[in-house]
Amino acid sequence: MPQNAHERARGLIDTLCIEEVPRGELAWLNSHLETCGSCAEHLAKAERIVKALRSVRIKTEETLVRRTQLNVRLHACQMREHLDQVRLLWTSCVMSLAMTVVTTWFLWQASEWLARWWGQGWLWQFAFLTFGFLPSVAAITTWVWQRPSFADHVGFKEGVE
């Protein structure tokens, strides 16, 4: 048999000790093990080693076990909270998009009516653009205004070099 077939078989045996192997690979391995004694012996040794490792009892302190359990539960709670926040964000985005679609039509109609009422053709376009983009401009301005500056972020203080 070629040497790479033995390497492949031993690699699959090592993988099989840790995780599942795809059916096609497992079928190939079984057929190879029927004809190759050294690889079958390698499988037997690997199974004995894994069995011996699983039978070893590891003694730990009770506080370590409790702290680990607490940290795992805390992390699970944080993941649930994060998932809830993401769901809320997506719900808000969908609602915002729906409201934008609905209110844009009404704003367009109101701007056109005002322009006809005042007799100014360009006014409705200006009103539509102004009231359409004003909330976005206000939100961006507020975000930039309240965002900490880069100097504050890196810890730079006046008078200190």
Short key terms for the protein model shown above:
elongated; 0% strand; mainly alpha; 83% helix; 2 domains; 161 residues
Commentary on this structure:
The chain has 161 residues and is an all-alpha fold. It folds into 2 domains: 3-55, no CATH class; 62-149. Helix content is 83%, strand content 0%. It has 6 helices and no strands. The protein has helices at 3-18, 23-35, 37-55, 62-118, 123-146, 150-154. α1 packs across α2, α1 (3-18) runs parallel beside α3 and α2 packs across α3 (37-55).
Shape: elongated
End-to-end distance, in Å? Answer: 71 Å
Relative helix content = over 70%
Tally of individual domains: 2
Sheet of most strands: none
Reconstruct the topology from this structure.
Layout: H1 3-18, H2 23-35, H3 37-55, H4 62-118, H5 123-146, H6 150-154
Helix pairs in contact: 1-2, 1-3, 2-3, 4-5
How would you summarize what this structure contains?
By secondary structure, the chain is an all-alpha fold. It has 2 domains: 3-55, no CATH class; 62-149. It is 83% helix and 0% strand.
